[in-house]
Amino acid sequence: MFQTDGYRVLDRQECLRLLARAPVGRVVYTRQALPAVLPVNFRLDESACVLMCTSPASDLVRAVDGVVVAFEADEFDAATRSGWSVVVTGPASVVTDPAEHERLSRTGPGSWMPLRDGVFVRIESEMVTGRELRGAPGAR
Amino acid sequence: MFQTDGYRVLDRQECLRLLARAPVGRVVYTRQALPAVLPVNFRLDESACVLMCTSPASDLVRAVDGVVVAFEADEFDAATRSGWSVVVTGPASVVTDPAEHERLSRTGPGSWMPLRDGVFVRIESEMVTGRELRGAPGAR
């Protein structure tokens, strides 16, 4: 919440409010020792975890299960040079509990891609950071 | 360029055309052994490298100079569940050549934040991948 030169640091509650209205975010992880990033649609669950649905055969599932990942969402307006970004960092895990999987199949996020037998991946929001850029019309 | 279930793989030229029109992308790197991601405004240079301008004191500069990073841009429409994403992976380096720095100060990307004595970071587009999501109205 303190003010810096060009942006305002957001507190956890502000971050979660912004995340909740973003339809798409990006999972940031490591694949074959290289930095990797994949945009996905998602939903925040009631404990502020990031939930997404993907193919059980995807590279993503193999790379992130049990691993700390980052998840980013943002919204910027190039005309006013303003916007916000939020990053959640925490362990990702595939939902393996059948009852929980069944519950998410009814209530959780779907995938934007046609999927049969999708699996749910949850990212715990251990660390949540964000900032708001107010626009700097004088900057080139 | 081949067709998969829910998306179309883009070739390098298509990726670079889309990147060239995106005002904001995200640098994906590792900071203190954790995955990190930071949205930045950027420009593609004539050799298809990603160029950005940032503070010489930033965490980003310290973390990415001489390191392979990923850089992602995308555009999605939640209503039609369609859009595209492009990822560039390659080594990042701070521009240290005075003549090149001077040239970029005149012609390169500015920063959206007010900066004094910004430095330019270049990411070589060694690997460029992308995909287009055509919309899957049947998916939940």
TrEMBL record, chains A, B:
It comes from the Bacteria. Pfam families: Pyridox_ox_2. This is Pyridoxamine 5'-phosphate oxidase family protein. It comes from Streptomyces tirandamycinicus. The lineage of its organism: Bacteria, Bacillati, Actinomycetota, Actinomycetes, Kitasatosporales.
